Amino acid sequence: STSDMGLGMGLGSLAVLVVLCCSTGVTAQTPSEWSYGCSLKSAVILGTEPGAILKNCTDPVTCQPFVPNPPLVNNTCEQFAEFACCDEAQSKSLSTEMYILGLLFNKCPACYENLFKMWCAFQCSPYQANFISVDGLKDTFAYDMTFKIHPDFGQGIYASCQSVTLDGGVIVGGAFQNAEDFLNYMGSANPLLNVSFAFDNDGYNTTASLCTDSCPCESCKESCEFNLDIFSTPCVLETFGYNLRCDTAGVIIAYTFLIAFFMFTLCVWFFVQYRGLLFRRSSGSNVNSSEPSERRNLSSFMSFLIASFFSSFGGVFVFLLAVLICLFDEGKDVELLGIWMNWGAFFFIFLSITIVYVGLGVCTFLILIVLTRPPHILESYFFEKVEDESRADDAFDDDGTYDLNYQNYISSQHSALQKERMDSLMSQDDSIAYNDHNSSNNNLNAHSSSHSSDVNLFKRYFQWHGRFCARHPYIVIVSCIVLTAALGSGVVFLQIQNNPVNLWSTTTSRSYEDMTYFDDTFGPFYRINQMIIMQKNTSAPQQDIFSEEVLNEILTLQNEISSIVALYETNTTADGQVQNFYTTLPDICFAPVPGQGCLIESVLEYWQSNRTRLNNYGSITNWIQHCVQSPLSKKCMSSIGSPVEAITVFGGFENNDYLTSKVLIVTFLLNNNPANLTQYRAWETKYLEIAAKPRTYITVAYSAERSVQDEISREGAADIPVVVISYLIMFLYVSFALGEIYPFPKPWYLLFARSRFALGLSGVIIVMCSIVISVGFNSFVGVKATLIISEVIPFLVLAIGVDNIFLLVDTLEKTDPSLPIDIRLGKVLAKVGTSITVASLSEALAFLLGALTKMPAVQAFALYASVAIFFDYILQITCFVSLLSLDTKRNMSNRMDCIPCIPVIPVEQEEYEVEPVSSDSFDFGFSDAPKTIPKHVNIDSDSDRDGPVRAPNKRRKKDSLLRLLTRKFYAPLILHPVSKFIIIVLFITTLGLSVDRISQIQVGLDQREVLPSDSYLQTYYDDVYEYLMVGTPFYVIIKETDYDYNNITSQNVLCGLPSCNSDSVINQYDAAPYVAGTGFSWLDDYLSWSAAPTCCLLNNTNTGDTCRPLPPSQKECHHCFNLEDNRPTGTEFYEYLDDFFAAGVAALCPITGQAYPTDVVFVPGSNNTQIQASRFRFFHQVLVTQHDYIMALKTVYAVADNLKEQGLTVFPYSIWYVFFEQYLYIDATVLVTVGLALAGVVVVTLVMLGNPIMTLIVVSTVGMILLTLMGVMDVWSISLNAISVVNLAMCIGISVEFCSHIAYAFDKARGTRTERAFKALVEMGPSVFSGITLTKFFGVVVLAFASSEMFQIYYFRMYLTIVISGCLHGLMFLPVVLSLIGPPSGSIWEKGITCIRNSCK
Predict the structure, then answer these.
(1) Is the per-residue pLDDT at 629 higher than 70?
(2) Which pTM was predicted?
(3) How far apart are CA 778 and CA 770, in angstroms?
């Protein structure tokens, strides 16, 4: 836009240059075969535009060099002063033209000098005839000429000039893609002659000055020095031709230590178990039943010990090798087996490996020695069985009820070993039964009373809570309905956040504040409506895109859009008449030249978008080539009189040859006044309709300013069916899975009574109610909803809530059906209420703490999720428990599900087991347990007691199929010692690989991923990334209101001229990576304009009146400024700024400020004597990937920060910065979000379980699930952005579900660690698998069929990973870890209370 207007200004400056000649002190490299001779002779004609008219010189006698007399003026072309082909008349015009050239190219003296060399040779070289030839005459004067120039010199000229900016509108290298274009343009700009340049090895040649010799960074990219260390160089070790990252090496070392630690643990375990066996043998203990099993399992670890012993020799070898290298290599780098690395890294890695292997070998050697020695007396302190009085506590249930089974069994046993075994295997029951039983044993009564008082307070509360909800179901249900209605009524305040800026950037963020300041001060960026056009017949030769048919169809399309009349408002007057308001393109377009119409960037502007000219100008490709090389040719100018910037209308070209373009680009720019937004959107709607129409010869990829927002809104509607199906599948699964299918009832129609479809539906409705409450509450407090919330929250809450539903129902099924329903539900809540609370409150608190992050999208999601999860928990332990009591009564009375008024007549059958479960399958191979457990002792922790005093046999529900499989096959399999080792190694390996991949996760969010897969913008963005060849513009804003622009020192801090500071604003940004070309500075051009004696002139007679630029010899006018060090200062600096902005290009003043009026904003009321803010314009390089955009933003911010440290307040701004700033601190966002979420899990788990070690294990497992997910993100091409950060937070919430129930069940179980892990798996494993894993899995799979890539990548892939990883860690890794290092049972809170009550000191 503004660059188009500036382009005209800059190239217009070049157009005023006539034939340039003369240089000073230059000696040409003259071939030996050249002879003296002139091709031209002078015929000077003086006029208003001074110049030299040259005649063709054909007489071999007179066309010879001569001694200029009078001599050449002003010391021009001194090397030819004694013998030349030019005379004093020519040198006069050259004197003025040299001056003009100096004004244009004073930013780069090397460029200025090289051009002098060339034109001096053209005019004055005594060898002129050897490289200048006259090809045509015009009115007897030489007109068409050919200048043969050596390619090296021609390329040298171009290289020194290509970064020079002209009048804020053009970079030489941007307007002219190569040296030929640049030189031919300069040769054709003079109306008095036309010079064509031919690159020839026999042409004129001399040494070209390098821009690095004399040019500042602004005009010479090679002179730039970027000293800011913002790009961290990755640490890499070259290994066998492969670059191994240092973080990968660190992971390998950490993995080695973990495996070594695990092997150390095995050694210690082996030692303890074997020595214990020897001790029991020597003490005469009865071990016959378990000795074979112990010996088998102990021998299975001998291979690890032997391998460890022999591996120590490898460690010794590595250590000796390191010592030898250290002695004989004094260098800092080491080469070993093709591995190059720094000595410190080498020593660290190999010394670490040495310590691991040598230490492991020594440990193994010592253990093997000790194993051969007989038992020592001291070992009795470790292995002798000591009866603890506290073991009597096992005679009591957790509710304080004395278990007669325990007493009867103990009295029948004679072996102390069997006694201990039965104590440990005693069925642990969390039930709360009646405590008012009478016992004849006073000691037992006393102990019962004491123990009952120590019962977990949470369990006592939940026991009361469950009984209350069961006794008063209707009161609870109505109360929940009222609560939902009250809090959900806030939905009337619901607001949807559709503004992408407010969605991804906070109002306090750096980019948002910069955007606000920029828009308020300079006005917002233009609205861009763009079409990328490709020929339809792609198999045809590429040049067909420039065929007459294609260009005429593009012109038709362009004219249709230019003629749009859009209705944007309709009003009804007081008398009932309807008034329609319309808008057209001229009403809203960007028009840089007042009165000249709209700026349309199109290749058709080479013909002024005129069909007659297009069809009558001859060869289209020849005309394009001519206009590209001569953009200031009058016939090539656009319809508004500005040159067409080729790089903005051609795309996909190669080697700077525009005729190889694969696409043509048409852009309509609209103003962006917020008050006219309705007009813009109405016009853009019509524009989209026209652009979407099929065409005969072309295909059009198109976009409007409103397109992204429209398509994102449409995406939500497009994926509604997929989301609904996903939820429906989860709902159906829940409804059917809650029913009793196994064992299959007889007769079959009892399924209608055993079904819990209505209960499942009620559970889903409760989840929906919690979402309504969340939306209502957050809307009332002013938190706007987003698309992410509408798509993720229902899935998250349903997935979490369903798990609790399964736990409640499954636990109820395990209770004794002969008990009253309120007692049963009290027992259920007492048993699982704490674990449900741990999981739910951990998730709610984790998401609540996640709201502390900076990203608005994450904040909103966290708040909505936290409230929804919390109230889902409240409704489940109240309303659902009451509904469960009602449904259970229906079930027990054999009434039909959904239609309870219809009874189902049962047939007498035994639905309950009397025989207890055999424990034959529960053999871990190394315990002292007998092979058979008495039938009246049930090892399952879920077994219920029928009352305060129970018979040996009791009624219990038959196991479900999933529970049976878990108890018989799965739990014994994974808890086998060999399985444990394999599982630990596999999971640690997976963790190491995941951590290694985390550093490779790509950051960003491709716009195409958030759009529907069938969106027209998909094609548009594909073409943008593939074909567009121009970078995005950005501004650098000087924000200081009191900045002293009229002070030379202050000017030097900003400007980019040779006399300015090398670390000035312009020079620092010119030097920065990801910045293309050079900046456009109004200050630089104003300083040059004010220093030129022919640009700003005042009339001598009428003081204050300005004069048109005249040669310095004219005396009617005088210079405006009283310069200090060739700079304007004081009040004069501000006095003539307006004249500079209004000045056009003149023959003697090629500098103009017409491209800059909007770049300076004065303080209101200051009478233009104080600048409020100003800006300099730059361009980024072509940015393709998300990484390019992020690094470009990081670069410009780093430069601004560096300038701020120097005491100058500036900021860079482009329209996309506000969207990408989040990625600059995305790593901190992840750490804060994840860290706070894990902290919430720690707090809630520690408070509810009261077991620090268990809390650490749970949080560590959740962390492993999270790290695994992040590792999969890199493997599965999932980028890190706001959406994935939300999913990471959700991963923590769901992972708690997989872990907390198993951990709680383990904490409350009795026995050895392995037995407790077995009980936890059997009790909670089926519920976790069916309630969490399967429910989520079925819902996630459907998301793979969504039309949006966002759903497929960020929801399907991440959710599936969370479900699979969570299931494996929760049901495989966690039980194994607990079986190895699980903490003892009990809460620190209960122990503390007990100590206080017992006066513990």
Answers:
(1) yes
(2) 0.72
(3) 12
